[in-house]
Design a protein that fits this description.
The structure holds two protein chains of two kinds. By secondary structure, chain A is α/β, with parallel strands linked by helices. Chain A has one domain: P-loop containing nucleotide triphosphate hydrolases (Rossmann fold). In chain A, helix 5 packs across helix 6. By secondary structure, chain B is mostly helical. Classes of the chains: A alpha/beta, B mainly alpha. Chains A and B meet through helix 3 and helix 4 of A and helix 7, helix 8 and helix 11 of B.
Amino acid sequence: MTCNNIAIRIQAILKISMPHTHKTHTEIADQKTPLVCVKMVSYEYSKGLPVLTDIDFDIMQGDFIGMVGPNGGGKSTLLKLMMGILPLQKGVVTLFGTDVRKFKQRNLIGYVSQKATHFDQRFPATVGEIVAMGRVQTRGLFHPLTKEDYEISRNALKDVGMLKYENTPLHELSGGQQQRVFIARALSSHPKLLVLDEPTIGIDIKAQEQFYDLLQQLRKEKGLTIVLVSHDIDVIASQANVFACINQTLIYHGHPEYFVKNDYLKKLYGKNIRMVLHGH
Amino acid sequence: MVRAFIAGGVIAVIAPLIGTFLVMRRFSLFADSLAHVALAGVAIGLISGIYPILTAVVTCIIAAIVIEKLRENQKIYGDAALSLFLSGSLAVALILISFGHGFNVNLFSYLFGSITAVETQDIYIMLSLSVLMLVFLLGFYKELFFIAFDEESAKVSGLPVKNLNLLLMSLAAVTVSLSMRIVGVLLIGALMVVPVLTALQIAKSFKQTMLYATVFSLIAVFAGLILSFYFDVIAGGAIVFLSLILFICALAFANIRSRVR
Protein backbone atom coordinates (compact mmCIF):
# COMPACT_ATOMS: atom_id res chain seq x y z
CA MET A 1 0.00 0.00 0.00
CA THR A 2 1.31 3.42 -0.85
CA CYS A 3 1.39 6.35 1.51
CA ASN A 4 -1.62 7.89 -0.19
CA ASN A 5 -3.72 4.77 0.15
CA ILE A 6 -2.86 4.54 3.81
CA ALA A 7 -3.77 8.19 4.25
CA ILE A 8 -7.16 7.61 2.60
CA ARG A 9 -7.77 4.59 4.79
CA ILE A 10 -6.98 6.45 8.00
CA GLN A 11 -9.14 9.37 6.96
CA ALA A 12 -12.00 6.96 6.37
CA ILE A 13 -11.56 5.49 9.82
CA LEU A 14 -11.42 8.94 11.37
CA LYS A 15 -14.58 10.08 9.62
CA ILE A 16 -16.45 7.03 10.88
CA SER A 17 -15.22 7.28 14.43
CA MET A 18 -15.19 11.08 14.87
CA PRO A 19 -18.77 11.55 16.12
CA HIS A 20 -18.54 9.56 19.33
CA THR A 21 -14.94 10.11 20.14
CA HIS A 22 -13.02 12.52 21.82
CA LYS A 23 -12.76 16.15 22.18
CA THR A 24 -9.58 17.62 20.84
CA HIS A 25 -7.43 19.08 23.49
CA THR A 26 -8.60 22.56 22.57
CA GLU A 27 -12.16 21.67 23.45
CA ILE A 28 -11.59 20.53 26.98
CA ALA A 29 -12.58 23.03 29.62
CA ASP A 30 -9.96 22.24 32.20
CA GLN A 31 -6.93 23.32 30.23
CA LYS A 32 -4.83 25.18 32.78
CA THR A 33 -1.62 23.33 33.55
CA PRO A 34 -0.44 20.47 31.42
CA LEU A 35 -0.29 17.13 33.21
CA VAL A 36 3.04 16.29 31.62
CA CYS A 37 5.61 18.71 30.16
CA VAL A 38 8.47 17.39 28.09
CA LYS A 39 10.99 20.16 27.41
CA MET A 40 13.86 19.68 24.95
CA VAL A 41 14.59 16.15 26.04
CA SER A 42 17.48 14.37 24.35
CA TYR A 43 18.92 10.98 25.19
CA GLU A 44 21.62 8.65 23.99
CA TYR A 45 22.34 5.14 25.24
CA SER A 46 25.96 5.37 24.16
CA LYS A 47 28.06 8.31 23.06
CA GLY A 48 27.36 9.60 19.60
CA LEU A 49 24.26 7.48 19.06
CA PRO A 50 21.29 9.63 19.98
CA VAL A 51 17.97 7.93 20.45
CA LEU A 52 16.00 11.11 21.09
CA THR A 53 16.76 14.69 20.05
CA ASP A 54 15.03 17.81 21.41
CA ILE A 55 11.63 16.30 22.15
CA ASP A 56 9.26 19.03 23.27
CA PHE A 57 5.52 18.73 23.91
CA ASP A 58 2.80 18.88 26.58
CA ILE A 59 0.09 16.47 27.57
CA MET A 60 -3.12 18.17 28.68
CA GLN A 61 -5.73 16.73 30.99
CA GLY A 62 -8.28 14.55 29.26
CA ASP A 63 -6.09 13.84 26.24
CA PHE A 64 -5.77 10.41 24.77
CA ILE A 65 -2.34 10.72 23.27
CA GLY A 66 -1.09 8.03 20.94
CA MET A 67 2.70 7.90 20.75
CA VAL A 68 3.55 6.23 17.48
CA GLY A 69 6.63 5.63 15.44
CA PRO A 70 8.91 2.91 14.14
CA ASN A 71 10.60 0.39 16.39
CA GLY A 72 13.88 1.74 17.66
CA GLY A 73 12.63 5.28 17.10
CA GLY A 74 12.69 6.16 20.78
CA LYS A 75 9.04 5.86 21.86
CA SER A 76 9.67 3.52 24.76
CA THR A 77 12.80 5.42 25.77
CA LEU A 78 10.79 8.65 25.87
CA LEU A 79 8.15 6.95 27.96
CA LYS A 80 10.74 5.69 30.42
CA LEU A 81 12.24 9.19 30.68
CA MET A 82 8.76 10.57 31.32
CA MET A 83 8.11 8.02 34.03
CA GLY A 84 11.49 8.55 35.67
CA ILE A 85 12.63 4.97 35.00
CA LEU A 86 15.58 6.29 33.01
CA PRO A 87 17.53 9.25 34.37
CA LEU A 88 17.34 12.40 32.23
CA GLN A 89 20.45 13.46 30.37
CA LYS A 90 19.33 16.63 28.63
CA GLY A 91 16.06 18.49 29.05
CA VAL A 92 13.34 18.61 31.66
CA VAL A 93 10.23 16.56 32.34
CA THR A 94 7.56 17.79 34.73
CA LEU A 95 4.70 15.65 36.02
CA PHE A 96 1.67 17.45 37.44
CA GLY A 97 3.79 20.59 37.68
CA THR A 98 6.70 18.96 39.53
CA ASP A 99 10.10 17.97 38.15
CA VAL A 100 10.06 14.22 37.54
CA ARG A 101 13.16 13.77 39.66
CA LYS A 102 11.35 15.24 42.66
CA PHE A 103 7.90 13.86 41.88
CA LYS A 104 6.57 11.83 44.78
CA GLN A 105 2.83 11.38 44.17
CA ARG A 106 3.33 8.24 42.16
CA ASN A 107 -0.22 7.08 42.83
CA LEU A 108 -1.36 9.69 40.28
CA ILE A 109 0.23 7.64 37.51
CA GLY A 110 -0.99 4.22 36.51
CA TYR A 111 1.60 2.38 34.43
CA VAL A 112 1.20 -0.72 32.28
CA SER A 113 4.64 -1.66 31.04
CA GLN A 114 5.54 -3.29 27.78
CA LYS A 115 6.75 -6.32 29.62
CA ALA A 116 3.56 -6.62 31.66
CA THR A 117 2.38 -9.81 30.01
CA HIS A 118 5.91 -11.10 29.63
CA PHE A 119 6.37 -11.93 33.27
CA ASP A 120 7.65 -15.30 34.43
CA GLN A 121 4.68 -17.56 33.74
CA ARG A 122 5.55 -19.77 36.66
CA PHE A 123 5.23 -16.94 39.18
CA PRO A 124 2.63 -18.23 41.63
CA ALA A 125 0.56 -15.10 42.12
CA THR A 126 -3.21 -14.81 41.94
CA VAL A 127 -5.02 -12.03 40.13
CA GLY A 128 -6.05 -10.55 43.48
CA GLU A 129 -2.47 -10.49 44.76
CA ILE A 130 -1.26 -8.76 41.59
CA VAL A 131 -3.92 -6.06 41.59
CA ALA A 132 -3.32 -5.35 45.27
CA MET A 133 0.22 -4.31 44.30
CA GLY A 134 -1.33 -1.15 42.91
CA ARG A 135 -2.08 -0.08 46.47
CA VAL A 136 1.47 -0.58 47.73
CA GLN A 137 2.75 2.93 47.16
CA THR A 138 -0.43 4.57 48.45
CA ARG A 139 -0.39 2.58 51.68
CA GLY A 140 3.24 3.49 52.35
CA LEU A 141 6.35 1.60 53.37
CA PHE A 142 6.13 -0.94 56.17
CA HIS A 143 2.32 -0.71 56.46
CA PRO A 144 0.37 -3.85 55.61
CA LEU A 145 -2.46 -3.47 53.16
CA THR A 146 -5.81 -2.79 54.80
CA LYS A 147 -9.31 -4.11 54.12
CA GLU A 148 -9.96 -0.83 52.33
CA ASP A 149 -7.01 -1.47 50.00
CA TYR A 150 -8.33 -4.90 49.10
CA GLU A 151 -11.80 -3.43 48.55
CA ILE A 152 -10.37 -0.80 46.20
CA SER A 153 -8.43 -3.50 44.32
CA ARG A 154 -11.60 -5.53 43.96
CA ASN A 155 -13.43 -2.52 42.57
CA ALA A 156 -10.65 -2.01 40.04
CA LEU A 157 -11.05 -5.65 39.00
CA LYS A 158 -14.78 -5.09 38.67
CA ASP A 159 -14.15 -2.06 36.44
CA VAL A 160 -12.20 -4.23 34.00
CA GLY A 161 -14.62 -7.12 34.27
CA MET A 162 -12.23 -9.56 35.92
CA LEU A 163 -13.57 -9.81 39.47
CA LYS A 164 -14.56 -13.47 39.16
CA TYR A 165 -10.92 -14.38 38.51
CA GLU A 166 -9.73 -12.86 41.77
CA ASN A 167 -8.35 -16.14 43.13
CA THR A 168 -7.11 -17.52 39.82
CA PRO A 169 -3.35 -17.81 39.31
CA LEU A 170 -2.39 -15.17 36.75
CA HIS A 171 -0.64 -17.57 34.41
CA GLU A 172 -3.88 -19.48 33.85
CA LEU A 173 -5.43 -16.51 32.06
CA SER A 174 -5.17 -15.56 28.39
CA GLY A 175 -3.00 -12.63 27.22
CA GLY A 176 -6.00 -10.34 26.88
CA GLN A 177 -7.28 -11.22 30.34
CA GLN A 178 -3.85 -10.72 31.87
CA GLN A 179 -3.66 -7.29 30.25
CA ARG A 180 -6.97 -6.35 31.89
CA VAL A 181 -5.56 -7.42 35.25
CA PHE A 182 -2.57 -5.12 34.74
CA ILE A 183 -4.88 -2.25 33.87
CA ALA A 184 -6.80 -2.98 37.07
CA ARG A 185 -3.51 -2.85 38.98
CA ALA A 186 -2.73 0.52 37.40
CA LEU A 187 -6.25 1.76 38.23
CA SER A 188 -6.24 0.73 41.86
CA SER A 189 -4.08 3.67 42.90
CA HIS A 190 -6.81 5.98 41.51
CA PRO A 191 -4.51 7.61 38.97
CA LYS A 192 -5.21 10.67 36.88
CA LEU A 193 -2.81 9.57 34.17
CA LEU A 194 -2.78 6.10 32.65
CA VAL A 195 0.35 5.17 30.71
CA LEU A 196 0.46 2.06 28.53
CA ASP A 197 3.53 0.89 26.62
CA GLU A 198 2.67 -1.34 23.65
CA PRO A 199 -0.16 -2.98 25.58
CA THR A 200 -1.58 -5.07 22.76
CA ILE A 201 1.47 -7.04 21.69
CA GLY A 202 0.70 -10.72 21.58
CA ILE A 203 -3.03 -10.20 22.04
CA ASP A 204 -5.51 -11.38 19.43
CA ILE A 205 -7.58 -8.92 17.40
CA LYS A 206 -10.85 -9.52 19.23
CA ALA A 207 -9.21 -9.00 22.61
CA GLN A 208 -7.57 -5.86 21.25
CA GLU A 209 -10.95 -4.40 20.27
CA GLN A 210 -12.31 -5.17 23.73
CA PHE A 211 -9.19 -3.62 25.22
CA TYR A 212 -9.66 -0.30 23.39
CA ASP A 213 -13.37 -0.26 24.21
CA LEU A 214 -12.44 -0.69 27.86
CA LEU A 215 -9.94 2.17 27.65
CA GLN A 216 -12.51 4.55 26.17
CA GLN A 217 -15.04 3.53 28.79
CA LEU A 218 -12.57 4.11 31.62
CA ARG A 219 -11.55 7.43 30.11
CA LYS A 220 -15.15 8.60 30.09
CA GLU A 221 -16.09 7.22 33.52
CA LYS A 222 -12.97 8.27 35.40
CA GLY A 223 -11.81 11.29 33.44
CA LEU A 224 -8.45 9.68 32.80
CA THR A 225 -5.71 11.11 30.64
CA ILE A 226 -4.20 8.32 28.61
CA VAL A 227 -0.77 7.96 27.03
CA LEU A 228 -0.52 4.94 24.80
CA VAL A 229 2.62 3.90 22.98
CA SER A 230 1.99 1.73 19.97
CA HIS A 231 3.38 0.92 16.57
CA ASP A 232 -0.18 0.35 15.35
CA ILE A 233 -1.00 3.69 13.68
CA ASP A 234 -4.15 2.37 12.07
CA VAL A 235 -5.80 1.54 15.37
CA ILE A 236 -4.47 4.49 17.35
CA ALA A 237 -5.77 6.91 14.75
CA SER A 238 -9.32 5.93 15.63
CA GLN A 239 -8.77 6.00 19.39
CA ALA A 240 -6.53 8.95 20.20
CA ASN A 241 -7.33 12.65 19.93
CA VAL A 242 -3.64 13.57 19.83
CA PHE A 243 -0.82 11.98 17.92
CA ALA A 244 2.78 12.31 18.98
CA CYS A 245 4.98 10.79 16.32
CA ILE A 246 8.50 9.97 17.37
CA ASN A 247 11.38 8.88 15.23
CA GLN A 248 14.34 10.28 17.13
CA THR A 249 12.68 13.70 16.87
CA LEU A 250 9.10 14.75 17.40
CA ILE A 251 7.94 14.56 13.83
CA TYR A 252 4.35 15.50 14.56
CA HIS A 253 2.20 16.49 17.50
CA GLY A 254 -1.47 17.23 17.05
CA HIS A 255 -4.73 15.80 15.82
CA PRO A 256 -4.50 12.54 13.88
CA GLU A 257 -6.46 14.04 10.98
CA TYR A 258 -3.86 16.71 10.23
CA PHE A 259 -1.14 14.10 10.50
CA VAL A 260 -2.75 12.23 7.69
CA LYS A 261 -3.60 15.26 5.53
CA ASN A 262 -0.09 16.63 5.62
CA ASP A 263 1.73 13.48 4.68
CA TYR A 264 3.57 13.07 7.97
CA LEU A 265 3.51 9.34 7.57
CA LYS A 266 6.26 9.66 4.97
CA LYS A 267 8.31 11.84 7.29
CA LEU A 268 7.81 9.42 10.15
CA TYR A 269 8.72 6.27 8.37
CA GLY A 270 10.63 7.43 5.31
CA LYS A 271 9.54 7.38 1.68
CA ASN A 272 9.41 3.75 0.72
CA ILE A 273 7.11 2.30 3.30
CA ARG A 274 4.62 -0.49 3.09
CA MET A 275 1.96 -0.91 5.70
CA VAL A 276 -0.10 -3.94 6.59
CA LEU A 277 -3.57 -2.95 7.70
CA HIS A 278 -5.71 -5.22 9.85
CA GLY A 279 -9.12 -6.06 8.52
CA HIS A 280 -11.23 -4.20 11.04
CA MET B 1 18.77 -32.05 71.72
CA VAL B 2 16.16 -29.45 72.64
CA ARG B 3 18.56 -26.72 71.59
CA ALA B 4 19.01 -28.42 68.23
CA PHE B 5 15.26 -28.53 67.69
CA ILE B 6 14.81 -24.89 68.63
CA ALA B 7 17.65 -23.81 66.37
CA GLY B 8 16.39 -26.09 63.62
CA GLY B 9 12.85 -24.78 63.96
CA VAL B 10 14.00 -21.19 63.72
CA ILE B 11 16.02 -21.86 60.57
CA ALA B 12 13.23 -23.99 59.11
CA VAL B 13 10.94 -20.97 59.26
CA ILE B 14 13.16 -18.16 58.04
CA ALA B 15 15.12 -19.97 55.33
CA PRO B 16 12.17 -20.76 53.01
CA LEU B 17 10.55 -17.36 53.63
CA ILE B 18 13.62 -15.57 52.28
CA GLY B 19 14.13 -18.39 49.83
CA THR B 20 10.75 -17.76 48.19
CA PHE B 21 11.84 -14.27 47.16
CA LEU B 22 15.26 -15.50 46.02
CA VAL B 23 13.83 -18.31 43.91
CA MET B 24 11.19 -16.12 42.25
CA ARG B 25 13.87 -13.58 41.37
CA ARG B 26 16.07 -16.32 39.93
CA PHE B 27 18.67 -15.86 42.65
CA SER B 28 18.71 -19.50 43.75
CA LEU B 29 22.48 -19.70 43.43
CA PHE B 30 22.82 -16.57 45.50
CA ALA B 31 22.35 -18.54 48.69
CA ASP B 32 25.17 -20.91 47.76
CA SER B 33 27.51 -18.05 46.93
CA LEU B 34 26.70 -16.34 50.20
CA ALA B 35 27.30 -19.61 52.02
CA HIS B 36 30.86 -19.74 50.71
CA VAL B 37 31.33 -16.11 51.67
CA ALA B 38 30.05 -17.03 55.13
CA LEU B 39 32.77 -19.66 55.33
CA ALA B 40 35.37 -16.98 54.68
CA GLY B 41 33.69 -14.90 57.36
CA VAL B 42 33.85 -17.81 59.80
CA ALA B 43 37.55 -18.28 58.99
CA ILE B 44 38.12 -14.61 59.82
CA GLY B 45 36.27 -15.15 63.08
CA LEU B 46 38.20 -18.29 63.99
CA ILE B 47 41.54 -16.60 63.35
CA SER B 48 40.71 -13.33 65.06
CA GLY B 49 38.91 -14.89 67.99
CA ILE B 50 35.72 -12.92 67.29
CA TYR B 51 32.42 -14.83 67.45
CA PRO B 52 32.40 -16.58 64.05
CA ILE B 53 28.67 -16.23 63.38
CA LEU B 54 29.03 -12.49 63.79
CA THR B 55 31.98 -12.22 61.40
CA ALA B 56 30.08 -14.43 58.99
CA VAL B 57 27.03 -12.14 59.13
CA VAL B 58 29.11 -9.02 58.52
CA THR B 59 31.12 -10.57 55.68
CA CYS B 60 27.95 -11.87 54.05
CA ILE B 61 26.19 -8.52 54.21
CA ILE B 62 29.18 -6.78 52.62
CA ALA B 63 29.34 -9.42 49.88
CA ALA B 64 25.58 -9.20 49.33
CA ILE B 65 25.83 -5.45 48.83
CA VAL B 66 28.72 -5.82 46.37
CA ILE B 67 26.92 -8.53 44.40
CA GLU B 68 23.78 -6.37 44.23
CA LYS B 69 25.79 -3.38 42.98
CA LEU B 70 27.41 -5.55 40.30
CA ARG B 71 23.99 -6.82 39.27
CA GLU B 72 22.58 -3.30 39.07
CA ASN B 73 25.43 -1.92 37.01
CA GLN B 74 25.14 -4.95 34.74
CA LYS B 75 28.87 -4.93 34.15
CA ILE B 76 28.97 -8.66 34.85
CA TYR B 77 26.40 -11.36 34.14
CA GLY B 78 24.39 -12.15 37.27
CA ASP B 79 25.44 -15.78 37.49
CA ALA B 80 29.08 -14.95 36.68
CA ALA B 81 29.18 -12.50 39.58
CA LEU B 82 27.91 -15.23 41.88
CA SER B 83 30.49 -17.66 40.55
CA LEU B 84 33.21 -15.11 41.26
CA PHE B 85 32.16 -14.86 44.88
CA LEU B 86 31.58 -18.56 45.28
CA SER B 87 35.07 -19.59 44.30
CA GLY B 88 36.81 -16.43 45.47
CA SER B 89 35.53 -16.60 49.00
CA LEU B 90 36.21 -20.31 49.29
CA ALA B 91 39.80 -19.61 48.26
CA VAL B 92 40.07 -16.88 50.91
CA ALA B 93 38.57 -19.20 53.53
CA LEU B 94 41.04 -21.97 52.74
CA ILE B 95 44.02 -19.62 52.90
CA LEU B 96 42.90 -18.16 56.21
CA ILE B 97 42.26 -21.58 57.68
CA SER B 98 45.72 -22.73 56.56
CA PHE B 99 47.13 -19.83 58.55
CA GLY B 100 45.15 -21.16 61.48
CA HIS B 101 47.38 -24.22 61.32
CA GLY B 102 45.60 -26.67 59.19
CA PHE B 103 42.10 -28.00 58.75
CA ASN B 104 40.45 -28.87 61.95
CA VAL B 105 37.18 -29.99 63.41
CA ASN B 106 35.90 -26.44 63.50
CA LEU B 107 36.00 -26.17 59.74
CA PHE B 108 34.23 -29.49 59.36
CA SER B 109 31.43 -28.41 61.67
CA TYR B 110 30.84 -25.27 59.62
CA LEU B 111 31.00 -27.07 56.29
CA PHE B 112 28.53 -29.75 57.23
CA GLY B 113 26.77 -28.35 60.28
CA SER B 114 27.04 -29.46 63.85
CA ILE B 115 23.84 -29.30 65.80
CA THR B 116 25.41 -30.85 68.85
CA ALA B 117 27.74 -27.86 69.06
CA VAL B 118 24.84 -25.42 69.26
CA GLU B 119 25.01 -23.67 72.62
CA THR B 120 22.50 -21.62 74.57
CA GLN B 121 24.29 -18.42 73.57
CA ASP B 122 23.88 -19.42 69.94
CA ILE B 123 20.15 -19.98 70.47
CA TYR B 124 19.65 -16.50 71.92
CA ILE B 125 21.50 -14.91 69.02
CA MET B 126 19.63 -16.98 66.46
CA LEU B 127 16.25 -16.24 68.03
CA SER B 128 16.81 -12.50 68.29
CA LEU B 129 18.24 -12.12 64.78
CA SER B 130 15.45 -14.28 63.37
CA VAL B 131 12.74 -12.24 65.06
CA LEU B 132 14.33 -9.08 63.67
CA MET B 133 14.42 -10.65 60.22
CA LEU B 134 10.80 -11.74 60.40
CA VAL B 135 9.83 -8.20 61.36
CA PHE B 136 11.59 -6.82 58.28
CA LEU B 137 10.37 -9.56 55.99
CA LEU B 138 6.74 -9.34 57.01
CA GLY B 139 6.87 -5.56 57.37
CA PHE B 140 8.13 -5.10 53.83
CA TYR B 141 6.29 -8.09 52.40
CA LYS B 142 4.13 -6.17 49.95
CA GLU B 143 7.10 -4.17 48.64
CA LEU B 144 9.35 -7.22 48.27
CA PHE B 145 6.52 -9.08 46.53
CA PHE B 146 5.98 -6.22 44.08
CA ILE B 147 9.68 -6.00 43.24
CA ALA B 148 9.99 -9.76 42.85
CA PHE B 149 7.13 -9.79 40.36
CA ASP B 150 7.74 -6.58 38.39
CA GLU B 151 10.80 -4.52 39.33
CA GLU B 152 10.21 -1.89 36.63
CA SER B 153 6.63 -1.12 37.64
CA ALA B 154 7.73 -1.07 41.26
CA LYS B 155 10.27 1.61 40.33
CA VAL B 156 7.64 3.65 38.49
CA SER B 157 5.29 3.47 41.43
CA GLY B 158 7.98 5.14 43.53
CA LEU B 159 9.27 2.28 45.66
CA PRO B 160 12.91 2.63 46.80
CA VAL B 161 13.81 -0.46 44.81
CA LYS B 162 17.58 -0.20 45.26
CA ASN B 163 17.37 -0.07 49.04
CA LEU B 164 14.77 -2.80 49.22
CA ASN B 165 16.94 -5.07 47.08
CA LEU B 166 19.81 -4.44 49.46
CA LEU B 167 17.51 -5.26 52.37
CA LEU B 168 16.53 -8.57 50.79
CA MET B 169 20.16 -9.45 50.13
CA SER B 170 21.09 -8.57 53.69
CA LEU B 171 18.27 -10.72 55.07
CA ALA B 172 19.55 -13.58 52.92
CA ALA B 173 23.06 -12.97 54.24
CA VAL B 174 21.88 -13.21 57.85
CA THR B 175 19.83 -16.34 57.13
CA VAL B 176 22.80 -18.07 55.57
CA SER B 177 25.06 -17.20 58.49
CA LEU B 178 22.55 -18.41 61.04
CA SER B 179 21.84 -21.64 59.16
CA MET B 180 25.46 -22.70 59.01
CA ARG B 181 25.41 -24.49 62.37
CA ILE B 182 22.42 -26.62 61.45
CA VAL B 183 22.92 -27.70 57.86
CA GLY B 184 26.42 -26.43 57.15
CA VAL B 185 27.72 -24.14 54.47
CA LEU B 186 27.48 -26.65 51.67
CA LEU B 187 23.78 -27.32 52.11
CA ILE B 188 22.24 -24.01 53.19
CA GLY B 189 21.32 -23.20 49.62
CA ALA B 190 19.27 -26.36 49.48
CA LEU B 191 17.32 -25.49 52.60
CA MET B 192 16.43 -22.09 51.18
CA VAL B 193 15.52 -23.35 47.75
CA VAL B 194 14.21 -26.93 47.78
CA PRO B 195 11.18 -26.38 50.06
CA VAL B 196 10.19 -23.44 47.85
CA LEU B 197 10.44 -25.56 44.71
CA THR B 198 8.33 -28.18 46.46
CA ALA B 199 5.70 -25.61 47.38
CA LEU B 200 5.60 -24.27 43.81
CA GLN B 201 4.33 -27.66 42.64
CA ILE B 202 1.11 -27.32 44.57
CA ALA B 203 0.61 -23.69 45.62
CA LYS B 204 -1.99 -21.51 43.95
CA SER B 205 -0.85 -18.14 45.25
CA PHE B 206 2.28 -16.43 46.50
CA LYS B 207 1.13 -16.55 50.12
CA GLN B 208 0.41 -20.26 49.76
CA THR B 209 3.88 -20.76 48.31
CA MET B 210 5.48 -19.20 51.37
CA LEU B 211 3.24 -21.14 53.74
CA TYR B 212 3.77 -24.55 52.11
CA ALA B 213 7.51 -23.91 51.79
CA THR B 214 7.69 -23.27 55.53
CA VAL B 215 5.66 -26.40 56.31
CA PHE B 216 7.83 -28.59 54.07
CA SER B 217 10.95 -27.07 55.54
CA LEU B 218 9.77 -27.75 59.12
CA ILE B 219 8.92 -31.35 58.26
CA ALA B 220 12.32 -31.89 56.66
CA VAL B 221 14.23 -30.25 59.50
CA PHE B 222 12.46 -32.01 62.38
CA ALA B 223 12.40 -35.38 60.68
CA GLY B 224 16.00 -34.91 59.62
CA LEU B 225 17.09 -34.05 63.16
CA ILE B 226 15.29 -37.10 64.57
CA LEU B 227 16.90 -39.34 61.95
CA SER B 228 20.31 -37.89 62.65
CA PHE B 229 19.99 -38.47 66.40
CA TYR B 230 18.72 -42.02 66.19
CA PHE B 231 20.70 -43.26 63.22
CA ASP B 232 23.86 -41.23 63.70
CA VAL B 233 23.58 -39.54 60.31
CA ILE B 234 24.89 -36.00 59.71
CA ALA B 235 21.88 -33.75 60.27
CA GLY B 236 22.47 -31.50 57.25
CA GLY B 237 22.50 -34.46 54.91
CA ALA B 238 19.39 -35.99 56.41
CA ILE B 239 17.46 -32.72 56.28
CA VAL B 240 18.28 -31.91 52.67
CA PHE B 241 17.74 -35.52 51.60
CA LEU B 242 14.25 -35.47 53.13
CA SER B 243 13.59 -32.12 51.45
CA LEU B 244 14.38 -33.72 48.12
CA ILE B 245 12.07 -36.67 48.87
CA LEU B 246 9.28 -34.21 49.62
CA PHE B 247 10.01 -32.39 46.36
CA ILE B 248 9.79 -35.61 44.36
CA CYS B 249 6.49 -36.46 46.07
CA ALA B 250 5.06 -33.02 45.34
CA LEU B 251 6.21 -33.20 41.73
CA ALA B 252 4.56 -36.60 41.31
CA PHE B 253 1.39 -35.33 42.95
CA ALA B 254 1.28 -32.29 40.66
CA ASN B 255 1.78 -34.47 37.58
CA ILE B 256 -0.97 -36.87 38.61
CA ARG B 257 -3.29 -33.99 39.38
CA SER B 258 -2.75 -32.36 36.01
CA ARG B 259 -3.35 -35.66 34.22
CA VAL B 260 -6.56 -36.32 36.11
CA ARG B 261 -7.78 -32.91 34.92
